[in-house]
Amino acid sequence: MTVDLRSDTVTKPTAGMLEAMWSAKVGDDVFGEDETVNALEQKAAAMFGMEAAIYCPTGTMTNQIAIKCFTQPLDELIADQTAHVYRYEGGGIAFNSGVSTRLLNGYRGIITAEMISPEINAENIHYPHTSLVVLENTVNKGGGSCYTIEQIKPIAQLCHDRGLKLHLDGARIFNALTHTGDNAVEYGKYFNGVSVCLSKGLGAPVGSVLLADKAIINYARRIRKVLGGGMRQAGFLAAAGIYALDHHVERLKIDHTHAQIMADALLNTSWVTKVVPVETNIILFDTVEPADVVLRKLVENGIKASSTDTHRIRFVTHLDIHPEQVEYVVSELKKL
Ligand SMILES: *Cc1c(COP(=O)(O)O)cnc(C)c1O
């Protein structure tokens, strides 16, 4: 048996999703004429209480477009030091937007208004102008840790009071909502921009959406074009996104249960020194032996995973991990 726990991006489209893609009605989306793309954009915006949306190939692109829309060159943004926008987007903040980044030390990537407030620069020609705060929910490098809406409210209030924009990297926002029980539509009240990945736990092969007000999305269409992301008959891909929103949100709780079962099994082994408490579909754990040694043993037994540090391994559960695979992993972990 092979079990691929490297990432929730490894999923393949289901039969139902392929059927939806195959039968999509399409047109030239650069002309605004792809009705499936338009339907996805409207659907996603409405779910989060936002006015409009733009469909893009990747979450990196939706984040980078948002940062470009919410800043000017010479500005500064504030994010946690684990932030995907900072660590895993190739330095795009500086390259695309000419903006510097102020990093905070949150708890598992979760930052608070109290942490942000003193880091907002005063008006002074020596200082970059602070214009944006970026939150991530769930936090990838935090091991799938979540913000609740109650934690977000004071940050949104601070941003509002100090004239900053607030963007959410919601690559795994539906995992967060599944865990917290918060309502997606509330998010529209607190964020200027929300990026949602359709190709992570939701299981679409490609695609992310950026949600914001109409004026921002109109500008975002310009930036997407400049970045080379204006796609033509993209409705075949957008259809997978619509299908994912309709069929793969509710089931995320299964991925979370699977992650919890694996975490419990890891806690009962002698070769694991620590398991970061599981909130969603990501499991981080520390090993006695170096991570690459453990990864090799795992892969010999059909389990693919990745490391995030010299002695830290990451498992991610997803749509293509079935109960019998979870059982298999648990039995292998005991033997290792
Ligand atoms: C995956 C991910 C993204 C976007 O990644 P793409 O591979 O560009 O779609 C953004 N933020 C977080 C936290 C992610 O995990």
UniProtKB/TrEMBL annotation:
PANTHER family: L-THREONINE ALDOLASE, L-THREONINE ALDOLASE-RELATED. One of its GO terms (cellular component) is cytosol. Its cofactor is pyridoxal 5'-phosphate. The modification N6-(pyridoxal phosphate)lysine is found at K200. GO terms for biological process: glycine biosynthetic process; L-threonine catabolic process. It comes from Mucilaginibacter glaciei. One of its GO terms (molecular function) is L-allo-threonine aldolase activity. Belongs to the threonine aldolase family. It holds the Pfam family Beta_elim_lyase. InterPro entries: ArAA_b-elim_lyase/Thr_aldolase, Low_specificity_L-TA-like, PyrdxlP-dep_Trfase, PyrdxlP-dep_Trfase_major, PyrdxlP-dep_Trfase_small. This is Aminotransferase class I/II-fold pyridoxal phosphate-dependent enzyme. The keyword Metal-binding does not apply. Residues 4-286 form the Aromatic amino acid beta-eliminating lyase/threonine aldolase domain.
